[in-house]
């Protein structure tokens, strides 16, 4: 079944406390070349038929994201995109 | 600065109550061709220098994901990947 991925991220100007917490933890793991960390949501929608990306954008705008503080992107998931164990 | 995207999703066999809640809400918005919804985390790491993806995988394994219940993928963010307002 075709899958659509909606990535929702806080707008750049919005403070990201979760990302900040991860960024602060990195030096203790010996990672000191990370300038910033941003954390958002990845939403995978599996469709029974051919998905209409415009309708998914509308859906993202109404239900999946808060357009006041978040940006989102919508795309068809490619075969390589599924989160396979790496 | 180069950005790496780590996508963390629950393993397929793990129940996803968040995704279930969204899936249940869709018919009320007139969307009835969605078979399933899975919700995970998208983590964007901005590097000061050239990122080493193997090291990022190690980092994801230790800090960003819970390997017992989650799968993750690591990739360099392409120009089109940034969450721009759509």
TrEMBL record, chains A, B:
Family matches, as PANTHER family: PHOSPHORIBOSYLFORMYLGLYCINAMIDINE SYNTHASE SUBUNIT PURS (PTHR34696)
Subcellular location: Cytoplasm
Function description: Part of the phosphoribosylformylglycinamidine synthase complex involved in the purines biosynthetic pathway. Catalyzes the ATP-dependent conversion of formylglycinamide ribonucleotide (FGAR) and glutamine to yield formylglycinamidine ribonucleotide (FGAM) and glutamate. The FGAM synthase complex is composed of three subunits. PurQ produces an ammonia molecule by converting glutamine to glutamate. PurL transfers the ammonia molecule to FGAR to form FGAM in an ATP-dependent manner.
Pfam short name (any one): PurS
GO MF term (any one): phosphoribosylformylglycinamidine synthase activity
Subunit structure: Part of the FGAM synthase complex composed of 1 PurL, 1 PurQ and 2 PurS subunits.
Family the entry assigns: Belongs to the PurS family.
Enzyme kind, highest EC tier: ligase
Pathway note: Purine metabolism; IMP biosynthesis via de novo pathway; 5-amino-1-(5-phospho-D-ribosyl)imidazole from N(2)-formyl-N(1)-(5-phospho-D-ribosyl)glycinamide: step 1/2
E.C. number: 6.3.5.3
Stretch forming the signal peptide: none
Broad class of where this protein is predominantly found: cytoplasm
Domain of life: Bacteria
Protein name as catalogued: Phosphoribosylformylglycinamidine synthase subunit PurS
Catalytic activity: N(2)-formyl-N(1)-(5-phospho-beta-D-ribosyl)glycinamide + L-glutamine + ATP + H2O = 2-formamido-N(1)-(5-O-phospho-beta-D-ribosyl)acetamidine + L-glutamate + ADP + phosphate + H(+)
NCBIfam families: phosphoribosylformylglycinamidine synthase subunit PurS, PRK05974.1
UniProt keyword annotations, A-Z: ATP-binding, Cytoplasm, Ligase, Nucleotide-binding, Purine biosynthesis
